[in-house]
Amino acid sequence: xxxxxxxxxxxxxxxxxxxxxxxxxxxxxxxxxxxxxxxxxxxxxxxxxxxxxxxxxxxxxxxxxxxxxxxxxxxxxxxxxxxxxxxxxxxxxxxxxxxxxxxxxxxxxxxxxxxxxxxxxxxxxxxxxxxxxxxxxxxxxxxxxxxxxxxxxxxxxxxxxxxxxxxxxxxxxxxxxxxxxxxxxxxxxxxxxxxxxxxxxxxxxxxxxxxxxxxxxxxxxxxxxxxxxxxxxxxxxxxxxxxxxxxxxxxxxxxxxxxxxxxxxxxxxxxxxxxxxxxxxxxxxxxxxxxxxxxxxxxxxxxxxxxxxxxxxxxxxxxxxxxxxxxxxxxxxxxxxxxxxxxxxxxxx
Length: 349
Hints:
By secondary structure, the chain is an alpha+beta fold. The chain has 4 domains: 14-48 and 149-174, no CATH class; 52-145, CATH 2.40.50.140; 185-238, no CATH class; 252-336, no CATH class. Helix content is 37%, strand content 17%. The chain is built from 11 helices and 9 strands. The protein has helices spanning 21-30, 36-40, 106-109, 160-174, 185-190, 196-204, 209-239, 252-256, 265-278, 296-309, 321-336, and strands at residues 46-49, 53-54, 64-78, 83-90, 95-101, 115-124, 129-132, 135-138, 148-151. Strand 6 (115-124) and strand 7 (129-132) form a beta hairpin. The longest helix is centred in the middle third of the chain and has 31 residues, at 209-239. The protein starts with 20 loop residues before the first helix and ends in a 13-residue tail after the last helix.
């Protein structure tokens, strides 16, 4: 176990990972994957549950299933527009045909009498059972080929099986690496976050669906931590920028009296709360949330007018010209009572 040198390992060009090479590296580049780190962060789009091995009798139709079948016969069928490698297979009781289109070399790959692992959809009719364009691999009683299999977004020249095989090689390069943890230990313990290498490996090679959820949750919690850290950092930097010192040149009562209706308790409460922040003499960013018609614009207008009363400019922006015009017509009569000039600036102006 050792502390990772990021440049030496994670920045390794994907071309030099076992099983890739220059040709596949170009295909991976189309997926935005150029380094070992990119590959480890290339998250599957879904997962296939291959934990159960079916026999031909009980395998459900129109659903991908795992089977272990022995090849008892094979032949290459030549047609005018395509060629078919046709395997006759058996699970020891039932028999079926497995068809592969335009893959002549498979006729040499499959050996009569040998067992193979197949994954695909079973189709039945009165006379026969058939599997088409099925995934396959050599079968060995010493190797467990069941489990949760990741499925990836693909491009020309790359299959999910190819990515899984290459991912296995990538994992071997990083599984014994120990990264120095940058998240506080208290946060790690409180939110039960796994190590980043352990989480990434679990996303690509989960033990089961519970383990997969734990690994995904750990990565999401890490993302949340760093987002919050970034927000706090930006907020701290922003608060130190040059700013104007606002004074309460327009009180809440004076502003309230400009309207022919009373403000709601929520409006009064939020204005008082915001005032505590802005009168401290620092820059602030405030997000005000509320339902349509709850009075958010009235609150925003108060601070635009407060800025003007302090010798500054106040700006209210709207997403459409129609809404901007509506706000202008509503705000101008109120602003005139304070001798504040309001202008409407539209995209076409």
